[in-house]
Write a structure and sequence with these properties.
Length: 201
């Protein structure tokens, strides 16, 4: 998993509440276990017209936000089913951070497991950031170590995060990576178990 430390990039405003995981990545794009290529299905029903052509009004189809690294959304982002393809699709698009007043629990947990940083800020702050992202200056800075979001207007907003999850993101460690850090202890345990309980070997 790629480490997350600091990021300065374009933020795309998505002023819609209760975006569920089927809207993030519709079911027809779940036929793969690969994390690559899922960007084509990201927000498919929002970004695509009925005839299959791109919807020019959707924020990520607009040239100013085509390379956005940050998404600013409304409350309860990621509700619905538990599909892990949702954070995969966001990452495949190039998005590394989602800022919202609240997230669905399973989606929120899946973000950390895959290196996507979900930031919870008060609704009034998110509304201000959303408005700024829709203005002429879309550049925001995220500092995970300091736990801050710096908006285009220069204001710095601090966010809370579980310290264990923060450490894992800073080190670029998913659950497998964290386990492998204890590889020596695991090997020693297995060797001792073979001696004391050979019937498990």
């Amino acid at each position: 998993m790629k480490a997350f430390t600091q990021l300065t990039g374009t933020a795309a405003p998505l002023p819609i509440a209760n975006i569920d995981t089927d809207q993030i990545i519709p079911k027809q794009f779940l036929k793969t276990v690969s994390r690559e290529g899922l960007a084509k299905g990201l927000f498919y029903d929002f970004k695509t017209k009925a005839d299959g052509s791109p919807n020019p009004d959707f924020v990520l189809n607009k040239p100013a936000y085509a390379k956005a690294a940050i998404l600013i959304a409304k409350e309860n982002f990621g509700c619905g089913s538990s599909r892990e393809h949702a954070p995969w699709a966001l990452l495949d698009q190039g998005l590394s951070v989602v800022i919202a007043p609240s997230f669905a629990d399973i989606f929120y947990n899946n973000c950390f497991k895959n290196g996507l940083l979900p930031i919870v800020l008060p609704r009034e702050v998110v509304d201000s950031l959303m408005e700024q992202a829709g203005g002429p200056n879309h550049m925001f800075s995220i500092d995970l170590a300091a736990q801050t979001v710096t908006a285009p207007d220069g204001k710095v907003h601090r966010f809370d995060i579980d310290q264990g999850r923060k450490a894992s993101l800073l080190a670029g460690l998913d659950e497998i990576g964290e386990t492998l850090q204890h590889g020596g202890d695991i090997s020693r345990f297995e060797e001792q178990r073979k001696l004391s309980q050979p019937w498990f070997a």
